[in-house]
Amino acid sequence: MIDEAALAKFVSRLGDLRALAARAVREKPGDARALYGAAGMYRLAGDLNAARDALERAAAADPSQTNFWFELGQTQRFLGRLEAAAESYRRALGGEPANHRARHALVQLQRQSAAGIAELQAMFAGADQEGWRTLHIGHALAKSYEDVGDLDRSFAWLGRAKQRRRRLHPYAAGEEEKLVSAVIAASPDAPPIGEGAAEPIFVAGLPRSGTTLVDRILSSHPDVVSAGEISNFPVLLNLLAGAAANAREPGVFARAGGVDFARLGELYVQSTRPLTGSTPRFVDKAPSNYLSAGMILRALPSARVVCVRRQPLDSVLSNYRQVFATEDRYYDYAYALESAAYKFVQFDRVLAHWRALLPPSRYLELSYEDLVANQESVTRALLAFCGLNWSAACLTFHENKAGIATPSAAQVRQPMYAHSVGRWRDYGAMLDPARRVLERAGLGL
Questions:
Q1: Fewest CB within a 10 Å sphere: which of 189, 207, 279, 379?
Q2: Strand-pair category, 304-309 with 363-367
């Protein structure tokens, strides 16, 4: 049964969040806690500039609250203000030297020397019930050793960093396989073409595969805006299938045959309006939308889905090197090399299915390596696929001033670079556990 109240609440939530945040700022302009809460609502609603302003006011009202400074640093980083972000992280550490999130964030922004390693190792020591401190500080140590050229120790620290979280949240490979099988079973027929709203361009793929880069390229076009990394489509699909909003389970796809897809498409577009306004086209960049590509094109047959794919071992390594600071079980695979490799295997199963089923005028697989090697020609093909005229601004995506709330927020402020391509070769036998998983699945190099 569809929970119509929950559905209506979700469709209006972005506008409601912005209205609540604006009210808090207006009615309690000197209340640090109210301003901090307003900033959180602005962030959820995609207004990073308003969030930064609220956080600056909160930190000024109560500078002793180190979390205010940390979140201000995060928001400044999303907006490309990297020097200001570093200063905010330092302010957080000045009031709380053991703030592991701020220390890790600062290490990520700056090239490290051997001088800071001993202090990080002291921070790593001791009990850590939830595993978050050791995860962040262990990753900071891995980054530090990488910066000083000791890749063996860097890789060893990644393993130590993840131990506690891996024990607490082991990757459920069997559940992942069931989910992918349900996705495939729920989409036996090709979707229709050319009905409904044409505004959305969905960019999907595994995290750390180049999805943010593609989002940035597209949203540099004068006719395109980025809605950011939103979950609107899968949440609305869940609610219309009678499931919980945040469910990610095989049953959702098994029940999807009874969904009113025309209504799903209409509600989806309506739910994005506070982010997209009247811009002719918009990008929805949610990596996990690769699972929903068939459902997306049923609900929005005129939309486009771009699925970004990266070389398997580079993809596995990049995910393993990343901290996903969330309790969402979707990211449990990142705690072990073998799990990250198995995640790629299941991702590859889904893409092979869509490749055979979905119309090439609506579904595109884009190689990260091809984009890096042939920036202009691949960008031209991408824009043509999306039905967009050529714009040279898409080649200078790094000059795009809009905020972007992803781990790649700093990288996409740089011109196209190739030093991440083939990084797996530097690690040699250290990646053998992942290599074996990929080879068993027929995904050799």
A1: 189
A2: parallel
